[in-house]
């Protein structure tokens, strides 16, 4: 093979700096999950196909990566089926496993499979890669990590309150100020549809409303008219287009609008519980905002709906989202297990931190010092020092070969190692080391304990 | 779907305790890698099939998990080929990607692909899962993590010295005493084969020698005779069967035995460099032992060969291994790039630590305190305290529902949370909290700052 090797489209190699920066985000999220009482689980990268297929709609089924059975897989395909040469029909016979498409369905499978070992309410987090055979494009990959936290087994709204705090805590720790946590409730959307007599058009109606930001009030109304929503209904909707003021002012308007819908009022009350308590408890740097146009994952969510937007100065869609679903595990036969969860968009958060220059300089865990190699005797002298430094927790290394000084210094430079340590015959005699600051060029002679103290800081 | 869901054979779910214990091992290894100047990289879970196929022998090719192409994959199979219904022949047409089988080949691919961005010598570590369609059995899985550290771009033997130290450092930190690091050199095996005039039987000869532990001296000789190794050759080999004493005594005997083999002497001198320097530098808890019967990965290694054995009291094969290979990247067209690397066997290390009861109790990152939920007002009072505790880095949570006290206490018990905190009307009035030790049952009343101080320790 003489042509330069490559990787499949939509996948990525991560170099040391990228890994360190990604881990900085992962670790911040993990620490916060754990601070909030969530515990980690991990599930296999591939699941039995029957666990995944049919859970994400037709489009989702197409985007699931299927794994070919091992051995003579074609021998199990009967000749009649084989002769049709129909990829769709043959797939389930030659592939019994598939790469996980998200973390939610494997989590539901986990809860049902291990229900007798789990203490409910079960607060779990999971940070693992998922795979989708999507068309790759800027910011969309075929392999990417999801970071999810969910609680199942309780309908308490305190959990929604905690998730708002959790978002605020993570982004505050990442020093990403100005994040907006938008919140809605599926029951409010149902209530609006009920109020305007368009229950059957709930999807059309929310899809149109969701575009308010982009196409404006008139655009939304035009689309609604096209979908057959009456002028009378649009009239009733009018307050939605001028829903501003504080949270409690907005909730008051919604209560008036939805006064005849039981489910709508319930949605408003749920929202009220969350916004009231968050107001009392306070947030560090994020702000919470009611957004009745928010409809993500509508088929899925039954209560609260969350979405997090990056600060306005960066042009980036949502960097997190989630909501409550009343029947997550029903697909695997375990009924009445309400859950609520959120997730963080790692790749987008990475881009935001990069754009705003928010990665701390200390993120990459680089060696503090490179010992220059002057030959076998000197290298042993250096290795004695290095061994002691490492036991003291100081990252140091020896240049492995006794090559030209310039090459060794160049290596320290390129690796961004802050100090070079020179120990030749003279230093060995004096039981000392010459420390060179790679930036300033300044050189200082010191004994081992001075060196250790210096590098420790 | 009413039957209980399951996962593919050879794969595993990990519960919170298992994840925490695995992370304890991973983090210890990562910290040590980083202390030794290694930097992390990550590669995609799947590679182009051509990157992997043909790199692990015929058996390896069979064990690689292949991913089915998306869409109407059969339409690309021409009718003649299709009519043969031969799985082997069709695979490369309907599958262009495959799950990574190890971390070594993807690393070689990475080095060649990114050679212009990399500063050599390149010290990288990589901790990621790999997949093999092996028959699952006790301790062998279809998905498992590898933990590898390698240096490429230098032939310096100091790296071998450092890897011995690194093994010692990791196992010492894990408090696993009595580990044996066995070392050999491929050149010594070649030298022996040369000395006894059996260069063409190198593999047969080393495979037999490798069994010395299991089948004893006579067994090994019998197998060698069966493979056509002469009595005269066996006579010359005799010193190998009584190779004991200190490292320098063994090396002296080997030098005598291999005096007429240039490559053999070179191997002995390389071993000598490593054992001498390790003796001078010292190890913390492990011991280094020359083992000329060690032949793992013979087709692959060209210099040092390492293998790490668990302490004798546990019956577990090797828990780590590695060696030097002179032409890792040659398969992708980059010649003369010598490398040396080691790996840690995560699953076996886990079993050893479990058997010897060496996991620290503090490994699982559990909540320190559960606040009992007495109703809406009390919960808000609790949440105010919890929010402040979390900002101070203390893991605490609120039971989400105001259910019976017994149920909430039971939850704290099952989750192994050490303290329950009760704050009802009485405590709210006194601006205090009642802390209950879940083990002793002892209750103490304290104000918030006392509570914070108490939980911080």
Protein model, in words:
- The structure is a homodimer of 457-residue chains.
- Chain A has helices spanning 16-35, 49-52, 57-63, 79-84, 87-94, 104-113, 158-173, 186-195, 202-209, 212-226, 231-241, 247-257, 262-281, 346-355, 376-391, 405-414, 425-430, 448-456, and strands spanning 39-40, 46-48, 66-67, 97-99, 122-131, 143-152, 180-185, 287-290, 304-309, 318-325, 339-344, 369-371, 396-398, 419-422, 433-437, 443-446.
- Chain A is an alpha+beta fold and 457 residues long.
- Chain A has three domains: 17-42 and 112-355, Bira Bifunctional Protein, Domain 2 (BirA Bifunctional Protein, domain 2), CATH 3.30.930; 46-99, no CATH class; 369-456, Anticodon-binding domain (Rossmann fold).
- An eight-stranded mixed β-sheet of chain A has the order 1-5-6-11-10-9-7-8.
- Chain A is globular, with a radius of gyration of 29 Å.
- The two termini of chain A are 48 Å apart.
- The mean pLDDT of chain A is 94.
Give structural attributes.
BirA Bifunctional Protein, domain 2; alpha+beta; Rossmann fold; 18 helices; homodimer; 457 residues; 16 strands; 8-stranded mixed sheet
Layout of helices and strands:
2 copies of one chain form a homodimer.
Chain A: H1 16-35, E1 39-40, E2 46-48, H2 49-52, H3 57-63, E3 66-67, H4 79-84, H5 87-94, E4 97-99, H6 104-113, E5 122-131, E6 143-152, H7 158-173, E7 180-185, H8 186-195, H9 202-209, H10 212-226, H11 231-241, H12 247-257, H13 262-281, E8 287-290, E9 304-309, E10 318-325, E11 339-344, H14 346-355, E12 369-371, H15 376-391, E13 396-398, H16 405-414, E14 419-422, H17 425-430, E15 433-437, E16 443-446, H18 448-456
């Amino acid at each position: 093979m003489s042509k330069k090797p490559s990787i499949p489209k939509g996948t990525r190699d991560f170099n040391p700096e990228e890994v360190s920066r990604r881990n900085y985000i992962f670790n911040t999220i993990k620490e916060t999950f754990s601070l909030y009482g969530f515990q980690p689980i991990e599930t296999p990268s591939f699941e039995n196909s029957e666990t995944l297929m049919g859970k994400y709609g037709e489009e989702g089924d197409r985007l699931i990566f299927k794994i070919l059975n091992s051995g003579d897989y074609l021998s199990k395909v009967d000749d009649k089926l084989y002769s049709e040469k129909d990829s769709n029909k043959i797939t389930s016979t030659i592939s019994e496993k598939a790469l996980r498409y998200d973390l939610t369905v494997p989590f539901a499978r986990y809860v049902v499979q291990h229900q007798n070992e789990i203490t409910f309410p079960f607060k779990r987090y999971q940070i693992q890669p998922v795979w989708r055979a999507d068309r790759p494009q800027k910011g969309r990959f075929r392999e990417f990590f999801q970071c999810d936290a969910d609680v199942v087994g309780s309908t308490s709204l305190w959990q929604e309150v905690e998730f708002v705090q959790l978002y605020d805590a993570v982004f505050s720790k990442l020093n990403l100020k100005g994040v907006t946590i938008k919140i809605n409730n599926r029951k409010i959307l149902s209530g609006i549809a009920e109020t305007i007599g368009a229950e059957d058009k709930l999807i059309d109606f929310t899809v149109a409303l969701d575009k308010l930001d982009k196409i404006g009030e008139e655009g939304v109304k035009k689309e609604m008219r096209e979908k057959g929503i009456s002028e009378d209904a649009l009239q009733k909707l009018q307050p939605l287009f001028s829903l501003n003021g504080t949270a409690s002012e907005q909730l008051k308007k919604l209560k008036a609008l939805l006064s005849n819908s039981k489910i709508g009022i319930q949605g408003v009350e749920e929202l009220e519980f969350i916004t009231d308590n968050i107001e009392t408890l306070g947030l560090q740097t994020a702000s919470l905002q009611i957004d009745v146009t928010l409809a993500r994952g509508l088929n899925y969510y039954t209560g609260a709906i969350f979405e997090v937007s990056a600060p306005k100065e960066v042009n980036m869609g949502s960097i997190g989202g989630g909501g409550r679903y009343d029947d997550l595990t029903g697909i695997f036969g375990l009924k009445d297990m309400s859950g609520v969860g959120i997730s963080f968009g790692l790749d987008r958060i990475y881009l935001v931190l990069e754009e705003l220059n928010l990665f701390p300089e200390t993120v990459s865990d680089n060696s503090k010092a490179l010992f220059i190699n002057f030959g076998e005797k000197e290298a042993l002298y250096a290795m004695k020092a290095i061994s002691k430094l490492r036991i003291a927790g100081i990252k140091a290394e020896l240049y492995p070969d006794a090559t030209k000084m310039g090459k060794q210094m160049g290596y320290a430079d390129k690796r961004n190692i802050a100090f070079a340590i020179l120990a030749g015959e003279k230093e060995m005699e004096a039981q000392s080391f010459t420390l060179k600051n790679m930036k300033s060029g300044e050189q200082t002679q010191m004994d081992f304990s001075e060196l250790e103290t210096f590098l420790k800081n």
